User: Which sequence fits this backbone?
Protein backbone atom coordinates (compact mmCIF):
# COMPACT_ATOMS: atom_id res chain seq x y z
CA UNK A 1 0.00 0.00 0.00
CA UNK A 2 1.26 3.45 -0.85
CA UNK A 3 2.17 5.54 2.22
CA UNK A 4 0.15 8.35 0.65
CA UNK A 5 -3.03 6.28 0.78
CA UNK A 6 -5.19 7.43 3.74
CA UNK A 7 -5.78 4.68 6.26
CA UNK A 8 -9.43 3.79 6.83
CA UNK A 9 -9.20 4.46 10.54
CA UNK A 10 -9.30 7.29 13.09
CA UNK A 11 -6.10 9.30 13.22
CA UNK A 12 -3.67 9.38 16.12
CA UNK A 13 -5.29 12.69 17.16
CA UNK A 14 -8.71 11.01 17.26
CA UNK A 15 -7.38 8.23 19.50
CA UNK A 16 -5.71 10.77 21.81
CA UNK A 17 -9.02 12.59 22.03
CA UNK A 18 -10.75 9.32 22.93
CA UNK A 19 -8.30 8.70 25.74
CA UNK A 20 -8.71 12.24 27.06
CA UNK A 21 -12.52 12.06 27.06
CA UNK A 22 -12.55 8.57 28.58
CA UNK A 23 -10.32 9.63 31.45
CA UNK A 24 -12.44 12.72 32.05
CA UNK A 25 -15.70 10.74 31.89
CA UNK A 26 -14.40 8.06 34.26
CA UNK A 27 -13.22 10.68 36.76
CA UNK A 28 -15.85 13.42 36.56
CA UNK A 29 -19.02 11.94 35.01
CA UNK A 30 -19.30 8.23 35.84
CA UNK A 31 -19.26 8.76 39.64
CA UNK A 32 -22.52 10.76 39.39
CA UNK A 33 -24.31 8.70 36.72
CA UNK A 34 -26.32 6.50 39.09
CA UNK A 35 -27.41 9.46 41.24
CA UNK A 36 -28.38 11.49 38.18
CA UNK A 37 -30.59 8.59 37.06
CA UNK A 38 -32.00 7.89 40.52
CA UNK A 39 -32.83 11.54 41.19
CA UNK A 40 -33.88 12.38 37.61
CA UNK A 41 -31.75 15.50 37.77
CA UNK A 42 -29.71 17.34 35.17
CA UNK A 43 -26.03 16.20 35.24
CA UNK A 44 -24.54 19.57 36.16
CA UNK A 45 -21.26 17.89 37.14
CA UNK A 46 -20.95 16.60 33.57
CA UNK A 47 -21.76 19.98 32.03
CA UNK A 48 -19.19 21.69 34.25
CA UNK A 49 -16.50 19.11 33.40
CA UNK A 50 -17.24 19.22 29.67
CA UNK A 51 -17.25 23.02 29.51
CA UNK A 52 -14.07 23.25 31.57
CA UNK A 53 -12.36 20.94 29.08
CA UNK A 54 -14.03 22.49 25.99
CA UNK A 55 -15.80 19.22 25.11
CA UNK A 56 -19.43 20.41 25.34
CA UNK A 57 -19.73 21.53 21.70
CA UNK A 58 -16.53 20.53 19.91
CA UNK A 59 -18.15 20.75 16.47
CA UNK A 60 -18.48 24.56 16.51
CA UNK A 61 -16.01 26.04 13.97
CA UNK A 62 -12.96 27.94 15.17
CA UNK A 63 -14.27 31.08 13.44
CA UNK A 64 -17.00 31.24 16.12
CA UNK A 65 -14.72 30.41 19.02
CA UNK A 66 -15.17 26.64 18.91
CA UNK A 67 -12.71 23.76 18.73
CA UNK A 68 -13.54 23.13 15.06
CA UNK A 69 -13.59 19.36 15.58
CA UNK A 70 -14.59 17.17 12.66
CA UNK A 71 -17.66 14.93 12.70
CA UNK A 72 -15.65 11.84 13.68
CA UNK A 73 -14.10 13.64 16.65
CA UNK A 74 -17.60 14.74 17.72
CA UNK A 75 -18.79 11.13 17.48
CA UNK A 76 -15.89 9.97 19.66
CA UNK A 77 -16.65 12.60 22.32
CA UNK A 78 -20.33 11.59 22.47
CA UNK A 79 -19.46 7.89 22.46
CA UNK A 80 -17.02 8.16 25.35
CA UNK A 81 -19.33 10.33 27.47
CA UNK A 82 -22.23 7.91 26.82
CA UNK A 83 -20.06 5.00 27.97
CA UNK A 84 -20.12 6.64 31.41
CA UNK A 85 -23.56 8.32 31.37
CA UNK A 86 -26.05 8.42 28.50
CA UNK A 87 -27.87 11.47 29.91
CA UNK A 88 -24.62 13.45 29.95
CA UNK A 89 -23.81 12.53 26.35
CA UNK A 90 -26.88 14.51 25.29
CA UNK A 91 -25.03 17.72 26.19
CA UNK A 92 -22.61 17.56 23.22
CA UNK A 93 -25.12 15.65 21.06
CA UNK A 94 -28.00 18.11 21.42
CA UNK A 95 -25.70 21.14 21.19
CA UNK A 96 -24.84 19.78 17.74
CA UNK A 97 -28.46 19.00 16.87
CA UNK A 98 -29.61 22.50 17.78
CA UNK A 99 -26.80 24.30 15.98
CA UNK A 100 -26.49 22.33 12.72
CA UNK A 101 -29.50 24.14 11.18
CA UNK A 102 -27.73 27.45 11.87
CA UNK A 103 -24.47 26.08 10.45
CA UNK A 104 -26.20 24.76 7.33
CA UNK A 105 -28.60 27.60 6.54
CA UNK A 106 -28.16 30.52 8.94
CA UNK A 107 -26.87 33.97 8.04
CA UNK A 108 -23.36 34.95 9.08
CA UNK A 109 -24.87 37.33 11.68
CA UNK A 110 -26.98 34.52 13.14
CA UNK A 111 -23.97 32.21 13.33
CA UNK A 112 -21.85 34.78 15.16
CA UNK A 113 -24.65 35.70 17.55
CA UNK A 114 -25.62 32.17 18.60
CA UNK A 115 -22.68 29.86 17.96
CA UNK A 116 -20.19 31.99 19.89
CA UNK A 117 -21.90 31.70 23.32
CA UNK A 118 -22.44 27.96 22.72
CA UNK A 119 -18.73 27.55 21.95
CA UNK A 120 -17.86 29.39 25.18
CA UNK A 121 -20.14 27.14 27.23
CA UNK A 122 -22.38 30.08 28.15
CA UNK A 123 -25.48 28.55 26.51
CA UNK A 124 -26.86 25.26 25.22
CA UNK A 125 -28.93 24.80 22.07
CA UNK A 126 -31.95 22.49 21.64
CA UNK A 127 -33.96 21.41 18.59
CA UNK A 128 -37.75 21.75 18.40
CA UNK A 129 -39.32 19.84 15.51
CA UNK A 130 -41.79 17.27 16.91
CA UNK A 131 -45.29 17.96 18.19
CA UNK A 132 -47.88 15.87 19.98
CA UNK A 133 -49.57 15.00 16.65
CA UNK A 134 -46.50 15.39 14.44
CA UNK A 135 -43.79 12.91 15.39
CA UNK A 136 -42.76 10.63 12.53
CA UNK A 137 -44.98 12.83 10.34
CA UNK A 138 -43.08 15.97 11.26
CA UNK A 139 -44.40 17.85 8.22
CA UNK A 140 -47.86 17.70 9.80
CA UNK A 141 -46.85 20.26 12.46
CA UNK A 142 -49.34 22.93 13.58
CA UNK A 143 -47.05 25.53 15.21
CA UNK A 144 -47.52 28.80 13.30
CA UNK A 145 -45.26 31.75 12.65
CA UNK A 146 -47.08 34.81 11.28
CA UNK A 147 -45.23 37.78 9.80
CA UNK A 148 -45.93 41.09 11.52
CA UNK A 149 -43.80 43.87 10.09
CA UNK A 150 -40.16 43.11 10.82
CA UNK A 151 -41.12 40.40 13.33
CA UNK A 152 -42.71 36.95 13.39
CA UNK A 153 -45.23 35.88 16.03
CA UNK A 154 -45.04 32.19 16.98
CA UNK A 155 -47.80 30.09 18.54
CA UNK A 156 -47.79 26.36 19.24
CA UNK A 157 -46.25 23.64 21.36
CA UNK A 158 -43.23 21.47 20.60
CA UNK A 159 -43.03 17.99 22.14
CA UNK A 160 -40.17 15.75 23.33
CA UNK A 161 -37.60 18.57 23.42
CA UNK A 162 -34.33 17.37 24.90
CA UNK A 163 -32.74 19.63 27.52
CA UNK A 164 -35.77 21.94 27.36
CA UNK A 165 -35.66 24.52 30.12
CA UNK A 166 -31.89 24.16 30.47
CA UNK A 167 -30.94 25.28 26.97
CA UNK A 168 -30.93 29.01 26.28
CA UNK A 169 -31.59 28.67 22.54
CA UNK A 170 -34.01 26.59 20.44
CA UNK A 171 -34.19 25.87 16.73
CA UNK A 172 -37.95 25.94 16.17
CA UNK A 173 -39.73 24.74 13.02
CA UNK A 174 -43.04 26.50 12.35
CA UNK A 175 -45.56 26.84 9.52
CA UNK A 176 -45.32 30.18 7.72
CA UNK A 177 -47.54 29.23 4.76
CA UNK A 178 -50.13 26.53 5.54
CA UNK A 179 -51.08 26.17 1.86
CA UNK A 180 -47.64 24.89 0.84
CA UNK A 181 -47.32 21.81 3.07
CA UNK A 182 -43.68 20.95 3.85
CA UNK A 183 -42.56 23.86 1.65
CA UNK A 184 -44.47 26.23 3.93
CA UNK A 185 -42.33 25.44 6.99
CA UNK A 186 -39.61 27.82 8.18
CA UNK A 187 -36.93 27.61 10.87
CA UNK A 188 -36.26 30.16 13.62
CA UNK A 189 -34.02 30.71 16.62
CA UNK A 190 -36.10 31.20 19.76
CA UNK A 191 -34.52 32.25 23.04
CA UNK A 192 -35.57 30.90 26.42
CA UNK A 193 -35.94 34.49 27.64
CA UNK A 194 -38.33 35.53 24.85
CA UNK A 195 -41.67 36.66 26.26
CA UNK A 196 -44.29 33.93 25.81
CA UNK A 197 -41.87 30.98 26.01
CA UNK A 198 -42.66 28.45 28.73
CA UNK A 199 -42.06 24.78 29.48
CA UNK A 200 -44.37 21.96 30.52
CA UNK A 201 -43.37 19.69 33.44
CA UNK A 202 -40.58 17.18 32.80
CA UNK A 203 -41.64 13.88 31.24
CA UNK A 204 -41.30 10.87 33.54
CA UNK A 205 -39.20 8.53 31.45
CA UNK A 206 -37.87 4.97 31.34
CA UNK A 207 -34.28 6.11 30.77
CA UNK A 208 -31.99 9.09 30.13
CA UNK A 209 -33.60 10.53 33.24
CA UNK A 210 -30.85 13.11 33.73
CA UNK A 211 -31.71 14.87 30.49
CA UNK A 212 -34.92 16.88 30.93
CA UNK A 213 -37.53 16.28 28.22
CA UNK A 214 -40.34 18.85 28.10
CA UNK A 215 -42.84 20.53 25.87
CA UNK A 216 -41.76 23.98 24.70
CA UNK A 217 -44.86 26.18 24.69
CA UNK A 218 -44.97 29.26 22.47
CA UNK A 219 -47.70 31.81 23.21
CA UNK A 220 -47.54 34.93 21.03
CA UNK A 221 -43.76 34.78 21.00
CA UNK A 222 -42.63 37.82 19.04
CA UNK A 223 -39.14 37.55 17.54
CA UNK A 224 -37.19 39.66 15.02
CA UNK A 225 -37.49 38.45 11.42
CA UNK A 226 -33.71 38.17 11.18
CA UNK A 227 -33.88 35.19 13.53
CA UNK A 228 -35.25 33.11 10.66
CA UNK A 229 -32.75 30.39 9.68
CA UNK A 230 -32.40 30.55 5.90
CA UNK A 231 -35.16 31.69 3.56
CA UNK A 232 -38.87 31.42 4.32
CA UNK A 233 -40.22 27.98 3.41
CA UNK A 234 -36.85 26.21 3.62
CA UNK A 235 -37.18 25.08 7.24
CA UNK A 236 -38.28 21.51 6.58
CA UNK A 237 -35.51 20.99 4.05
CA UNK A 238 -33.05 22.26 6.67
CA UNK A 239 -34.60 19.96 9.28
CA UNK A 240 -34.13 16.88 7.10
CA UNK A 241 -30.59 17.89 6.13
CA UNK A 242 -29.80 18.38 9.83
CA UNK A 243 -30.97 14.88 10.70
CA UNK A 244 -28.69 13.40 8.03
CA UNK A 245 -25.80 14.70 10.17
CA UNK A 246 -27.19 14.25 13.67
CA UNK A 247 -28.60 10.72 13.40
CA UNK A 248 -24.90 9.82 13.43
CA UNK A 249 -24.54 11.36 16.90
CA UNK A 250 -27.37 9.12 18.16
CA UNK A 251 -25.49 6.15 16.73
CA UNK A 252 -22.48 7.41 18.70
CA UNK A 253 -24.53 7.57 21.88
CA UNK A 254 -25.75 4.01 21.28
CA UNK A 255 -22.17 2.81 20.73
CA UNK A 256 -21.09 4.35 24.02
CA UNK A 257 -23.95 2.83 26.00
CA UNK A 258 -23.23 -0.58 24.47
CA UNK A 259 -19.49 -0.30 25.13
CA UNK A 260 -20.13 0.61 28.76
CA UNK A 261 -22.37 -2.43 29.18
CA UNK A 262 -19.94 -4.77 27.44
CA UNK A 263 -16.98 -3.50 29.48
CA UNK A 264 -18.86 -3.99 32.72
CA UNK A 265 -20.06 -7.47 31.72
CA UNK A 266 -16.54 -8.57 30.75
CA UNK A 267 -15.17 -7.42 34.10
CA UNK A 268 -17.98 -9.18 35.93
CA UNK A 269 -17.66 -12.61 34.24
CA UNK A 270 -13.91 -12.65 34.93
CA UNK A 271 -14.56 -12.25 38.67
CA UNK A 272 -17.87 -14.09 39.25
CA UNK A 273 -17.30 -17.76 40.08
CA UNK A 274 -19.73 -20.66 39.82
CA UNK A 275 -18.97 -24.40 39.84
CA UNK A 276 -15.47 -23.59 41.02
CA UNK A 277 -14.33 -21.30 38.19
CA UNK A 278 -15.03 -17.87 36.66
CA UNK A 279 -18.18 -17.92 34.54
CA UNK A 280 -16.11 -16.33 31.77
CA UNK A 281 -14.48 -19.76 31.34
CA UNK A 282 -17.77 -21.24 30.11
CA UNK A 283 -18.13 -21.43 26.35
CA UNK A 284 -21.76 -20.27 26.40
CA UNK A 285 -20.72 -17.04 28.13
CA UNK A 286 -17.74 -16.61 25.81
CA UNK A 287 -19.95 -16.91 22.73
CA UNK A 288 -22.28 -14.24 24.12
CA UNK A 289 -19.38 -11.87 24.70
CA UNK A 290 -17.91 -12.57 21.26
CA UNK A 291 -21.23 -11.81 19.55
CA UNK A 292 -21.68 -8.63 21.60
CA UNK A 293 -18.21 -7.34 20.73
CA UNK A 294 -18.44 -8.37 17.07
CA UNK A 295 -21.74 -6.60 16.46
CA UNK A 296 -20.60 -3.52 18.38
CA UNK A 297 -17.46 -3.20 16.27
CA UNK A 298 -19.50 -3.57 13.07
CA UNK A 299 -21.85 -0.78 14.19
CA UNK A 300 -18.87 1.38 15.19
CA UNK A 301 -17.21 1.06 11.79
CA UNK A 302 -20.44 1.96 9.97
CA UNK A 303 -20.92 4.96 12.28
CA UNK A 304 -17.36 6.22 11.73
CA UNK A 305 -17.82 5.71 7.98
CA UNK A 306 -20.99 7.82 8.13
CA UNK A 307 -19.22 10.49 10.21
CA UNK A 308 -16.54 10.90 7.52
CA UNK A 309 -19.27 11.37 4.90
CA UNK A 310 -21.02 13.88 7.16
CA UNK A 311 -17.82 15.89 7.48
CA UNK A 312 -17.35 15.98 3.72
CA UNK A 313 -20.95 17.11 3.26
CA UNK A 314 -20.56 19.88 5.86
CA UNK A 315 -17.69 21.21 3.75
CA UNK A 316 -19.95 21.47 0.71
CA UNK A 317 -19.22 18.20 -1.04
CA UNK A 318 -22.19 16.36 -2.56
CA UNK A 319 -22.45 13.01 -0.78
CA UNK A 320 -25.31 11.10 -2.45
CA UNK A 321 -25.47 8.26 0.07
CA UNK A 322 -25.26 10.36 3.27
CA UNK A 323 -28.97 9.92 3.99
CA UNK A 324 -28.67 6.14 3.62
CA UNK A 325 -25.55 5.67 5.73
CA UNK A 326 -26.71 8.03 8.49
CA UNK A 327 -30.01 6.15 8.78
CA UNK A 328 -28.19 2.81 8.58
CA UNK A 329 -25.68 3.57 11.33
CA UNK A 330 -28.33 5.00 13.66
CA UNK A 331 -30.60 2.01 13.12
CA UNK A 332 -27.86 -0.62 13.44
CA UNK A 333 -26.06 0.95 16.40
CA UNK A 334 -29.26 1.44 18.40
CA UNK A 335 -30.51 -2.11 17.71
CA UNK A 336 -27.08 -3.44 18.70
CA UNK A 337 -27.05 -1.31 21.86
CA UNK A 338 -30.42 -2.68 22.93
CA UNK A 339 -29.28 -6.28 22.34
CA UNK A 340 -25.94 -5.80 24.11
CA UNK A 341 -27.42 -4.14 27.18
CA UNK A 342 -30.06 -6.87 27.50
CA UNK A 343 -27.30 -9.49 27.25
CA UNK A 344 -25.21 -7.63 29.84
CA UNK A 345 -28.12 -7.79 32.29
CA UNK A 346 -28.41 -11.52 31.54
CA UNK A 347 -24.71 -12.11 32.15
CA UNK A 348 -24.96 -10.48 35.57
CA UNK A 349 -27.96 -12.63 36.42
CA UNK A 350 -29.98 -11.41 39.38
CA UNK A 351 -27.42 -8.70 40.11
CA UNK A 352 -27.95 -7.26 36.64
CA UNK A 353 -31.61 -6.70 37.44
CA UNK A 354 -30.82 -4.49 40.44
CA UNK A 355 -29.97 -0.80 40.56
CA UNK A 356 -26.83 -1.63 42.53
CA UNK A 357 -25.20 -2.40 39.18
CA UNK A 358 -25.13 -0.07 36.14
CA UNK A 359 -26.22 -2.41 33.36
CA UNK A 360 -29.97 -2.11 34.05
CA UNK A 361 -29.63 1.68 33.69
CA UNK A 362 -27.74 1.18 30.45
CA UNK A 363 -30.49 -1.13 29.19
CA UNK A 364 -33.14 1.51 29.98
CA UNK A 365 -31.03 4.25 28.42
CA UNK A 366 -30.40 2.24 25.24
CA UNK A 367 -34.09 1.98 24.37
CA UNK A 368 -34.53 5.63 23.44
CA UNK A 369 -31.79 5.39 20.79
CA UNK A 370 -34.17 3.18 18.78
CA UNK A 371 -36.88 5.87 19.00
CA UNK A 372 -35.65 9.44 18.85
CA UNK A 373 -34.37 11.33 15.83
CA UNK A 374 -36.56 9.01 13.79
CA UNK A 375 -37.72 5.59 14.97
CA UNK A 376 -35.89 2.61 13.54
CA UNK A 377 -39.00 1.77 11.56
CA UNK A 378 -38.76 5.20 9.92
CA UNK A 379 -35.02 4.65 9.34
CA UNK A 380 -35.82 1.47 7.44
CA UNK A 381 -38.34 3.38 5.32
CA UNK A 382 -35.72 6.06 4.63
CA UNK A 383 -33.12 3.47 3.63
CA UNK A 384 -35.56 1.61 1.37
CA UNK A 385 -36.56 4.84 -0.38
CA UNK A 386 -32.90 5.62 -1.01
CA UNK A 387 -32.39 2.15 -2.50
CA UNK A 388 -35.50 2.43 -4.70
CA UNK A 389 -34.78 5.92 -6.05
Assistant:
Amino acid sequence: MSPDFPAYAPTEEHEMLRQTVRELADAKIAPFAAAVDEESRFPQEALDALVQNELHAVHVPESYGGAGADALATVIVIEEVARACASSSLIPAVNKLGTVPVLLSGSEELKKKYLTPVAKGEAMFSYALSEADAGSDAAGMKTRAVRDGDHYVLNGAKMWITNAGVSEYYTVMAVTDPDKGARGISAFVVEKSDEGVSFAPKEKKLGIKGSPTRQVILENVRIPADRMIGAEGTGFKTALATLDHTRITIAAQALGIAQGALDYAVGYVKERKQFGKPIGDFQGVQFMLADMAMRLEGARQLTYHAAIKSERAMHGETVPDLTFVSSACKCLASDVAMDITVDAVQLLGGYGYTREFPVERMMRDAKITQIYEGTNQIQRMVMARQLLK
